[in-house]
Design a protein that fits this description.
The chain is built from twelve helices and no strands. It has helices at about 1-20, 25-35, 40-45, 50-65, 80-90, 100-105, 110-120, 120-145, 145-165, 170-180, 185-190, 195-210.
Length: about 210
């Protein structure tokens, strides 16, 4: 029950922040953002820039989802068009794997994809499932990888730990472990972009605190 109450409370706070700027769509936008993980929601509420980005993504996705209504009966709705819409919606979830997840979801029948575009809850479930599959694949790849990859990960881990330790000395080990679960390309980006790293560290810390 606490989780439900927390979500209700977060929903009210989100709605109040979104309403002044997007009166007509405030309810829909709040519903879309409430599909995000709770630690991300806390971050969205505490960081104005993150809130603005998340709301803008949701607005774009909402408008795109509403656009095809006049041609829903047209079987020739192009895959590219569907892909663009789906990407905008998936990107709201901030998984770091928007392109891969969109590709996975587009493998479904066109009718199923159109249903995802109009049902945020179903989309949220599918995104979670796809993310889980991606992580499982990554584990399998790691199992069969050669020692040089393990060395690379170790080197990345050492660099990452020294940077994280400067920001969060008390939780450096746990946070570094969580960040190392990310895609290697994303990790390299974190090492070169300290602003992005700071955001990732805060997200990980929020997840540890919950």
């Amino acid at each position: 029950m606490d989780g439900e109450e927390d979500l209700e409370n977060l929903g009210e706070q989100l709605y109040n922040r979104i309403y002044p700027k997007y009166k007509e769509d405030a309810g829909k936008l709040t519903g879309m953002l409430l599909e995000l993980p709770v630690p991300v929601l806390h971050q969205v509420l505490h960081e104005e820039a993150t809130l603005t980005t998340a709301v803008e993504k949701a607005v774009r996705a909402l408008h795109l989802a509403q656009e095809p209504s006049q041609e829903e009966d047209d079987v020739s709705v192009s895959s590219d068009f569907l892909g663009e819409q789906l990407f905008e919606l998936v990107d709201v979830y901030n998984t770091g794997h928007s392109q891969k997840i969109t590709g996975m979801l587009l493998e479904q029948h066109k009718d199923a994809v159109l249903k995802l575009l109009s049902d945020p809850k179903l989309l949220g479930e599918q995104v979670t499932l796809a993310l889980k599959t991606l992580k499982e694949r990554k584990v399998e790849e790691t199992d069969v990888s050669d020692s040089s990859e393990a060395d690379d990960t170790e080197r990345l881990g050492e660099k990452l730990f020294s940077l994280v330790e400067e920001m969060e000395p008390l939780h450096a080990n746990d946070i570094t472990g969580m960040l190392l679960e990310m895609d290697p390309t994303a990790l390299q980006q974190l090492l070169t972009d300290h602003k992005m790293l700071a955001v990732a560290v805060q997200k990980a810390k929020a997840a540890l605190d919950t």
